[in-house]
Structures are given as structure tokens and as C-alpha cells.
Fold this protein.
Amino acid sequence: MAKKDEQNFVMHIAKREDDFPQWYTDVILKTDMVDYSDVKGCMVIKPYGYGVWELIQSEMDKRFKETGHVNAYFPLFIPESLLMKEAEHVEGFAPEVAWVTHGGSEKLTERLAIRPTSETIIGSMYSKWIQSYRDLPVLMNQWCNVVRWEKSTRPFLRTSEFLWQEGHTAHETFDEAQEETMRMLGVYREFAENVLAIPVITGRKSEKEKFAGAQETYTMEAMMQDGKALQMGTSHNMGTNFAKSYDIQYLSKEGKLEYCFTTSWGTSTRMIGGLIMVHGDDRGLVLPPRVAPIQVAILPIAQHKPGVLEKADELLQTLKAAGVRAKVDSSDQTAGWKFNQWEMKGVPIRIEVGPKDIEKNQVVAVRRDDLEKQFIPMEEVSARIPAMLDEVHDGLFNKALKLREEKTTDATTFEQLCDGVQHGFVRAMWCGETGCELAIKEKSGGATTRCAPFEQKELSDVCVHCGKPAKTMTYFAKAY
RNA sequence: CGAGGUGUAGCGCAGUUUGGUAGCGCGUUUGGUUCGGGACCAAAAGGUCGCAGGUUCAAAUCCUGUCACCUCGACCA
């Protein structure tokens, strides 16, 4: 098969090592996940990309329900006066809020913010709904879109408008709120690892990096193939900050009026960007099987020959019955073209059926992660393929874990830190002072604190930068 | 907002230095041969060269202005 001049080939994508940002945009555009829209910073999520989001939603929703949460929907618009009630929150979000100033041709007496997050409007509703300790806890989640007017954007990772879920809960005590905060961070972690096949570091955010208005912010951070970190989800304990601003009070068993303790937690379409950057390779996307809209692509070989298409369809029914999301590609293309096409789209398993296979009563299955051919007897397909999907998942997770470990170093000197953050996570001791954090960012070329992990390790007893007594071992990295 | 870059066919680009008939590859359409790793042959369709002015016998090319997009900064709880 004659190899075309690669640079002229329309499906060519940039090599990751050469230009990671270019590779990333190539992949998501050429695999039909997204398209750029006419609105700057907003992307169109096409069916193939949205299919991934739908699977993320359903897997996550299942976990929310299991932990006692219910879904609701709150308005897109937030009156200015309502948004302004929590001082720190306003200060944090003000620069990136989009405003509605007119209704039709009439100027509004009060501007409406398009939600950058819903703490305020949900807080104001909770204030009405919660009267007694009998009303607690309130455990709600909403799936919606939010808008943040960012100066620079990148598909999935940072867009002006994005889809997410935000959970908001209210509790009687700090401890209950803290327990909820940690529970949901745990759900996120389990989801990232078992569904997205992405290993994550969980821990607490620094004072500077925490959510505007939160008492404590916890995060999960993943490592991308180019050595930059990505925040994949956050969980906040608000203490009574929002309850005090939005007047969320209840009458306790003892008959005393008390403020609620609230939490919020969220994950977004950014996770899709994350999984692309963690798993993708030079051939294109690699989708973890549990969120792949198409898990198996069935490719009929020499499909004009009698019986081939029928066999492919039979295989499709077998796989569907086994709970596998499969598709037959009977398009009028050569086999080689289809192989490359479906590899680029990241489908976890490709199955080939041709005249030779039909003769031998078998199929050829190829895993996307290792590209090795396996011959499977027809009668074993319904058992073997689901198992193979799990193997792909494990393969991806282990590969990502190995990558992260290779890109993680420990630093006891500032030089080591500056060197390490150029290509990954650096664990180092830190005094906890914001001034020191800013200085590190400045001097290291943009590295920020990612989190103080729950699994602490004492590398030394002084801060890697200022030499004062250290408080925590902290992860540093450049981040998306 | 700062620095750099790019606008030419659906997509990717050459042509601009040195002004002279609008080009290439991929894709698309039609017919045929193929079909187990990006096929081949033949024919065809498709462009106000980002926009507006200027110089010239003549502008994709030179000059002035302008718009859009991209990359890197800055910014982004």
C-alpha cells in the first residue's frame, strides 16, 4: 500500500512530542468531537464529543444517587444584588461575569448576571426551604451550563460557556459538611480512576488557590502527557460563610436558631479535555471504554462478497445483547482507511470480519491501546469482548499511572523545584505563606501549588523556597 | 493589553523577495477496476487571492489603512 506524503494527507495530525497544543486541537477537530463556533471562546460539542459527556453524566449521576443526592434545576440569571451578598465570592468572580443589561429594548432596572456558578441563587432558595433541623441535610445537584468570561480559551479545558454539574448541600454541623465534602471528593476520585482511567492526586488547596468564599477547597489533580497538571474536580466546605450571607438558618432540636454549614462540588466538560490529553497518542484519540460512545467498531472486510455484511450484522446483534456499544462501518472505503479512521476516533476495540474469518468461524479483534491482533472464536465473542474492554481500561489506567510517576519528582532545593516543574509534578515542603507561593510562581516560570495531598511525606522540615519551618508537603506544577 | 504569525477552491498549502493568463495536494462528483493497514485509472466541477483605498499599461504580489483568526505572554477561586 503506497504511503501518501503525510503532510498532504488530510487526516494527518501533529505528533504529540512536536507540538502538544496543536496535536490536541487537531485531534478534537478531526475526530468530530467539537467545532469552533462564531462566538469567541464558545465551542460546539458535536455528537461524538457529546456522547462522551452523556456517558460521563450517566455514570456520575448513578454515583450521586447512590450517595443520597437528588437533581434539581436553578435559573441561569442571577440578580446583581443577590450575587453581591458574599464579599469574597464577588471579588473572586467579578472579572469574569457576563451581564444581561436589557430585556428586549428596555434597559433593566437591575442587571442580571449569567451564572458563573450557582452558590448564590441556590443559597437564596435554601434560605427559604430550610427552617428546621428536620429539613437537613439538603443534598442537591444540578446539571447545567455556566459562563465565565475568560480572556483566553481552549476547547474543553477552558471555554466561555461550559457544561458541568454542581452539587450543593446544607448540614447541621461543620463535621457533617466536612464529611460530605470528603465523600464527594472520594466519588470524584473513584470516578476518575474507574471510569476515565485517570489516576489523580487528591488534596487540599492553598489559601490562594481555594474557591472564592470557601473555608476549605479540596481538589483532584491529574498529570497530562506534556507535564502540565489539570484540575479535574473540586469539592468545597463553605463553613457558614454562604449561610451567613444568604441567611440559611434552621431551628435546632434545642430550639436555637443556627446557621447551616454548606458545601459545593463540581466537575465539568473539562474532564473530556483531560482524558484526551492523558490517553491520546500519535494515532489520535484513545477513549477509555466506559465513556466511549462506540466501544467496538465492526469492520467488514471485502464487504461486497456474499455473507460478509450479514456476518457483521450478526456480530453487532451479539455484542448489543452483551451490553456493548458497537457499530458496523459498511461505508465504501478501503479497509486500511477505516482502520486509521477508527483508530483516530479512539474506539477501544476494532473487530474485523472477512471471508477468511467466516470460513474459520472467528473474528479478529484489535485493542486500541496496544494494537495487537487477537483471534476470537465466534462463540466466545459475547464473553470475550466485554472482558477485553475491561483490559483496555486497566491498560490505560496503568499506563497513565506510570506516566504520572515518571513525571513526579521530589525537591529539597529550590533549583530542583524549578527544574522539576518544567516537566511534571514536584513534591516539596512549603511554609504555607501566600507571598512565598507567589514568589515561587514568579521565579519558577509559572508553577503553582496544586494541592497538599492527603498522603503526606516529610521531605525536610523547612520550606523549599524561604527556608522557614515547613507546614505541608505540597505538589507544585504548571497547570492548564 | 504586550510580542510574534497567518488570511489564496470544502480542507491543507505554494506563488509575494524580482508586478505580466490563478496553481498544487487532499477531498467532492461520474464511470470502471479494487477491497486483510491510509488503493488505482479516466473524466469533471470548484476561487472577487480577508476587506477598503492608492501606485501602475498591468496588483495575490508594491504602498497606506482596516478587519478577522492563531500562538506565546498577562489573566484565569
Notes: Confidence is low (pLDDT under 50) at residues 1-11 of chain A. The two ends of chain A are 41 Å apart (CA to CA). The first strand of chain A starts at residue 34 and ends at 36.
